[in-house]
Prior knowledge:
Radius of gyration: 24 Å
Number of strands: 33
Helix content: under 10%
Low-confidence stretches: 1-10, 401-410
Number of domains: 2
Largest sheet: 5 strands, antiparallel
CATH topology of the largest domain: Methylamine Dehydrogenase, Chain H
Distance between the termini: 19 Å
Strand order of the largest sheet: 1-2-33-32-31
Oligomer: single chain
Shape: globular
Amino acid sequence: xxxxxxxxxxxSRPVLxxxxxxxxxxxxxxxxxxxxDGVITASEDRTIRVWLKRDSGQYWPSIYHTMAxxxxxxxxxxxxxxxxxxxxxxxxxxxxxxxxxxxxxxxxTYPAHQNRVxxxxxxxxxEWVISTGHDKCVSWMCxxxxxxxxxxxxxxxxxxxxxxxxxxYAFVGDYSGQITLLKLEQNTCSVITTLKGHEGSIxxxxxxxxxxxxxxxxxxxxxxxxxIGGRKGRTLLLQGHHDRVQSLCYLQLTRQLVxxxxxxxxxxxxxxxxxxxxxxxLESDSCQKCEQPFFWNIKQMWDxxxxxxxxxxxxxxxxxxxxxxxxxxxxxxxxGFEFQVRVCDSCYDSIKDEDRTSLATFHEGKHNxxxxxxxxxxxxxxxxxxxxxxxxxxxxxxxxxxxxxGFSPH
Length: 410
């Protein structure tokens, strides 16, 4: 059962339209059904449910199917109405949903993994179901025959997946903080490159095939934009969340990135501005401002008869500095620092007031978000998480009305 929230947008923030409650355990995935007032959910309580909005304004389950194992991931292909559900036991199950979304038929089981499935993508063109799992591999299986076509193993749990349908490139994030770019073939694959930049496990990925940009969110609370198409290794760092970044969605039309974190934070980043790359941190044996030795520089400490200092880094210039030369803090949104970070005194003096103008908006989802997806055409977003609640949001106040042509939330 779900309650409809009757509220009108008072300011530029997401508007909560509905709450869906009824799951007995964490909801691992929730997807909006395009062109329908409906949501598909998968949960640790071993159920997959299709919720349709009734005339009363409430969402009720039109389909309630119990699985053999907790549901850990889900993909839905609307044109063919096929649902793929990954489970904690490593299997991926395929279903076909009826046109009125009141009946769901089992098609087949894919023995894709030996452990929990973390992400699924279906390619209708190739007739592949691609998945990642906690058995440290990505696998791709033929949906016609149900046979395994290939798999590639990593050194740690594979946690998330994105796929470029035109080139058959797969992006796999893992728990070591690394992203691997693979070229998938019918029975083999080749590693194109690996991307390293996060200091924590990769939790989510988003691939934009038009601008050829890859976005990654991680347990280090940060987001990195990788310019794959530019072929210059350009990366942009975005720091504004205070907890693990769990889900991403890039809106190509408005050049905005929507991100959600496990503490319920929802951020909308303006990517239609000229941003600066964060510098590489420099290494030095002494402060690059006052030249005082750091504590491991025994020779200079002995020569100058001074105590060694702790090394810090200015986030704006990357220089190695002591605490005294980097006592100030400042935000610097053009470099992705939406909250205050350590900067050296000279960089602090160079930052103007207008340089501190935020390039993102931050909002409260007020529940533990583990997964988010958007219906960009209607400006809708659905979030779900460990609190067993699913929330449907009108995002048009924060992402622009051009997304929601002809859509009225009430």
